[in-house]
Write a structure and sequence with these properties.
single chain, alpha+beta
Amino acid sequence: MTPILTELAVGQNIGSRHIEISRTDLVKYAGASGDFNPIHWNEAFATGVGLPGVIAHGMFTMGSVVQLVTDWSGDPAAVVDFQTRFTKPVPVSDTTGTAAAGAVLEISGAIGAIDADAGTARVDLTVISAGQKVLMKAQAVVRLA
């Protein structure tokens, strides 16, 4: 059901989800985006530059996170602004040959502000991986009827 602006309240939960990330996901994203930086696929290179291991692309993480908002709104075009601050990398361990995920994003969203004049609601997102907030001030502005 599409949310209606006048029925929303600040603090209202819009939902949550867990997203499992594998190194295969990172390779697929690299191919689609053209971002072949070896920190996203080469363990030796990533640790050699001081990272804890292979890390997820920032834009991959952002795109995965905003999916909660687009699913809630029912219309990806309703998201008129999305921004965040990257605070921690998302290490993706090698799980080749196992059923385990290399990393898990825990995402939850709540209404942070409502602008009735503009017809928008701001959704504040909390994004945690391995017990740490990996994005700060993750906020999407959504235009609603």
